[in-house]
Design a protein that fits this description.
The protein has 17 helices and 6 strands. The chain has 432 residues and is an alpha+beta fold. The protein has 4 domains: 103 residues, Orthogonal Bundle (434 Repressor (Amino-terminal Domain)); 63 residues; 100 residues, no CATH class; 128 residues, Beta-Lactamase, CATH 3.30.450. The two termini are 32 Å apart.
Length: 432
């Protein structure tokens, strides 16, 4: 039943809610009680002056009688009905139910949303237990140490006499392994207690730092004014590992702000536009510093948002600043086709690629990447290479003018079946 045919049901519901008799309402709007009865049972359509008069008598807006429950409420109820399809819910009568019993409809919708939120919480915690590297490494250390203690104890418990030298050695090993087990167990318990104390369980330390930086809008006025990293409170970061990572990121931020002060940066953008190479030459800095600086500018300085991803030579992501439309995986490896990883094989060579992420709405981005050695090399030492990628959205007027490389977030959720770089099957279909 369409929503505009349920005006009568809403009139009846409102009348009963305020305790008004049918005959009294009919008399007030100057119609017969029998005609009002037909209206309330949706057997007569009404509008115009009569609808306005009835709405005034019921002390509501006419739109409340004609429109009824909002679309969001109806959409939630339909989703709940589809989710519980084996129960045989009358999905075709949802509008009627919401119109006649708006309170119950809102209660059911709220409960359905609450159940969905709890299910997502369980999935998040399960995903964290599966992927958290600290937890996995700590458990591995505890189990390995316990196995070593068991082996040593089994040797000492064997019948027969051991030479004094070997017996003392086994006792020493047993003591050292027991101490290591105690320390590992204490560390694991402390980390679990620490994670329980964090109100927002953002996962591993890198994710906590990313959430911390995002919470400040990727911009720190204290450092822009010339303050040191100690001027930025890190109270929101409960773990020591997260605070240590944050200090490194804030140190880079402070150095970039000193080399490229905000007023001068704004003036250079007005003169040169968003050209990272020209801007880097203007301030005599490297492209990695310029990419970081562009990603840290306050809202309104750039005409659109930009994203940033930094990784090391192993491909592990060290920092992410998301951008709308470009999916960044929370766990696991990223797409190997990102220019971020191409740059690792060509250090100090800037790479620019136009990419398109597959999905329901393919959006194009210009990805600018460069890899660089983290510090000056010494003789007979291997470089510590890092790579950074700046992500710029392509304006709608420019999309489709040049070929775009299809990329994904990670193989697990990428629907592109013929990708030569695929590592594992996707859980999504090609047409997703």
């Amino acid at each position: 039943m369409a929503r505009d045919t349920l005006t009568g049901s809403r009139i009846r519901e409102r009348r009963l809610m305020i305790g008004l008799r049918q005959a009294d309402l009919a008399r007030e709007v100057d119609i017969s009680a029998s005609y009002l009865n037909l209206i309330e049972h949706n057997r007569r359509r009404i509008g115009g002056k009569l609808l306005v008069d009835i709405a005034a008598a019921l002390s509501v807006e006419p739109s409340m009688l004609t429109e009824g429950a909002e679309a969001a409420l109806l959409a939630t109820l339909r989703e709940a009905a589809a989710d519980a399809s084996p129960t045989g819910a009358e999905a075709d009568r949802i509008d009627e139910f919401a119109g006649r019993f708006p309170g119950w409809a809102e209660l059911l919708a709220r409960l359905f949303r609450r159940v969905g939120s709890l299910e997502r919480t369980v999935e998040t915690l399960s995903d964290r237990l599966t992927h958290d590297p600290h937890l996995a490494a700590s458990l591995h250390e505890v189990l390995s140490t316990a196995a070593a203690i068991r082996s040593t104890a089994a040797i000492l418990a064997e019948p027969g006499e051991l030479e004094a030298e070997w017996r003392d050695r086994f006792h020493r090993n047993l003591h050292q392994d027991a101490e290591r087990l105690a320390e590992s167990s204490k560390s694991l318990v402390g980390w679990l207690d620490d994670s329980q104390a964090i109100e927002d369980r953002t996962g591993v330390p890198v994710e906590q730092v990313e959430a911390f930086v995002a919470g400040h809008g990727n911009h720190f006025p204290e450092l822009e004014a010339g303050g040191d990293i100690e001027s930025v409170p890190l109270d929101d970061l409960a773990s020591g590992a997260a605070r240590e990572i944050a200090r490194v990121i804030l140190g880079d931020y402070a150095a970039d702000a000193r080399a490229m002060p905000l007023p001068e940066m704004e003036a250079a953008l007005d003169a040169l536009g968003l050209d990272p190479v020209a801007l880097a030459r203007r301030f005599d800095v490297g492209l990695p510093a310029m990419f970081r600086r562009l990603a840290s500018l306050p809202e309104g300085v750039l005409p659109y948002e930009v994203g940033l991803v930094i990784c090391d030579a192993s491909g592990s992501i060290l920092f992410r600043k998301p951008i709308t439309g470009f999916a960044l995986p929370r766990h696991g490896e990223s797409c190997p086709l990102w220019p971020l990883y191409t740059a690792l094989g060509r250090p100090l060579t800037p790479i620019r690629r136009r990419v398109s992420q597959l999905g329901r709405n393919a959006v194009e981005f210009d990805c600018l990447a460069v890899a660089w050695p983290e510090e000056m090399l010494d003789f007979d030492s291997d470089p510590v290479i890092r790579s950074v990628m700046l992500i710029l959205p392509v304006p709608a007027t420019e999309r489709g003018r040049q070929p775009a490389q299809p990329v994904g977030a990670s193989c697990r959720v990428c629907p592109r079946g013929d990708c030569p770089a695929r590592r594992e099957p996707s859980i999504l279909s090609e047409g997703f």
